[in-house]
Structures are given as C-alpha cells and as structure tokens.
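[audit] Reproducing an earlier prediction to check determinism. Same input, same settings, fresh worker. If the tokens differ from the archived copy the diff job will pick it up downstream; this log only records the rerun itself.
[audit] input (356 residues):
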Amino acid sequence: MKKILFIYPYPAGVAPSQRFRFEQYIDDLPKEEFTIRKAAFMDAKTWAILYKPSNHFRKVWGILWGFVKRWGLMFTLGKYHFVFIHREAAPIGYPLFEWIIAKVWRKKIIYDFDDAIWLPNTSAQNALVAKIKFHQKTALICQWAHKVSVGNEYLGDYARQFNSNVVYNPTTIDTQHLHNRTKDQTQEKLVIGWTGSHSTLPYLKELEPIISDLETHYEFEFWVIANQAPALDLKSLVYVPWNKATEIDDLLHFNIGVMPLTNDQWAKGKCGFKALQYMALGIPPLVSPVGVNISIVQNGVNGFVCDSPQEWQKALEKLLKSSELRTTLGQAARHTVERHYSVKSNQNNFRLFFSL
C-alpha cells in the first residue's frame, strides 16, 4: 500500500490548476493500492476574499492559520511514501516546508506546476505579497524533488536546469464524467465566449476592438465567464459569474471559444486549459500562437491559430457565418482532447509518478 500526501495551495474543487492537474485523478487511484491524504494551505473563507480589495486582517489571519496547519502536518510525514506538491506548500517566504519534507524526512517529492511561477505575477489587490513571495523557491523545490511534473515543454526546459527527472504531464479534461457533452452548432443564437479568472481578463483587451467591429455586422453575444466582471465597452457583452455547479452548462452556450494571449514569458508557461475546455465540448477554439497552444490547435483542422487582428477577425467571421464549419472543427477538437488531453488517455502516466 502506497501512502501519498497531496499538498496544495487552495481549497479542493475551486482552482482550475488543481482540479485539472491532479484532483480529478485522486478518486480513480485504486483503493487497494493507494492511501491518500489531502492538505490545502488555504481554507474556503480565505479563498473567498483572497482576490478582493481590503479584508486585510482576514487575509492575514487566513494565511497565518495556513502556516499553523502546515507546521502540524510536518509531524505526520513519517508514514508517507510520496508527497505530491502542487505549486508550493506555502504562498510566501522560503520553501522551508519543502526542505523539511525532502531533507529532514527524506520523502520523495513529486513537484507539479503549470505556470511560469518563478516569474513575479501577483495581482494588484495583493501587491504587498509580491515582495515576500520568494519566487526563487521554484528552482529550489525542483532541485529537492524526486520527480518534477510540468504542463508543457517551456516549463520543462526551466525545470531541467535543476532536475533531470522531469515528466511532461499535460493539463487534462475529464471527457467521461464532466466535459461529456458536445455543442449543438445548429442553434440560432450565436455566442462567442471566453472563460478564465481575474488574472487573465487583461488578455481580452486585444479582442475588444475586433468584437466591437463585428457587432456592427453580425448578431451574437460575447460571453465572459469569470470570477470578476470585465471592463469591456461592448454592446454584446454578457458577464456570467463562474459557478462550479453550472460550469459545463454555461460553457455549452458558446459556439466559438477564444483564448487570446500576449507573447511574453508568463504566457508561454500557460498550458492551454481554456482551449482544451472548449475543445472537449465540441466548441472550436481560436487561440494566439503562444506556448503550448500551437501544439494543441491545428490551424483550420480543429480550430484557428490567430497571430494578428486581421486573422482574429477573419476566423471569427468564418465561424459566425457557418454552422457546418463550427461543427466540423468542433468534432475534430473533441477528438484531439479524447486522444491526447483527457484523463483517460493520461491516467497511466499520472500513476507512474508513484512508482518506487
């Protein structure tokens, strides 16, 4: 029986990086082979206010309580064979807990990350935290880890500077139990859609003038599903607060899914999650040619790769005009996810992390 401790920053079920990188695998690990314990740093109350302005005392208290729980956890490590750490054991400061796990208890760490987290990218609401984040921790934890799990090869190239045992572990979609329906593209009302968090909302500014121009020629709605309303001056805008319970139903309103990115070091670390969500539901994706996007999306086959405002507008017009094209690309997109980016296709790869 292999005993595994999963350490992660946020409460279970709320953060996309946790949900789609490891949480959806845990329940499928055979009970006769694995014993699992899950340990979030942050509780649900702290998570609910984390990215909101003010509430400074409650945030500080929530972080302090997270540290208290982590210290208590350090005294239980003797019984575990593996410790799976997603992103970091604590959000600020030197990676002391990771050092204790690796050097004092000598446990095998599986270190997982899906963003360029060694780069400063803290939200404006928590600018103070940026000064005490200690971004160098990523390199140190890579050095101490038994294996490093990365979401794309850009992240892998970084990790290999510090650890030779780096495994490509794509962000995956549960096509059997969650994203298990596909879009009917014959419905009359057309929706161009985007889903994400407050941190990625700025990427939509690139599309604002394009969507504004298309509004004068076509009938459609532009849906934004997020945890914060976008600051976009668009007549077609429909803001839908993200809700886990309605996530799939909300996404299935989309006829077209967009994923614009700027070509910078942080964006190169992205793992194509938005595009994969669209694709799993038979929704053709339009993406910027940044990072792993160009591996996931084949231009004109299962979506469109758009490298200029003209290409974005042309691709959107094509799809707005043709339900047949949306259906064809959407079916190919779903097939891509099933073969290469689904939980089912990656399940054995995930279990190999815990081979002795």
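[audit] rerun output stored. Observation attached for the diff report: The chain has a mean pLDDT of 93.
[audit] end
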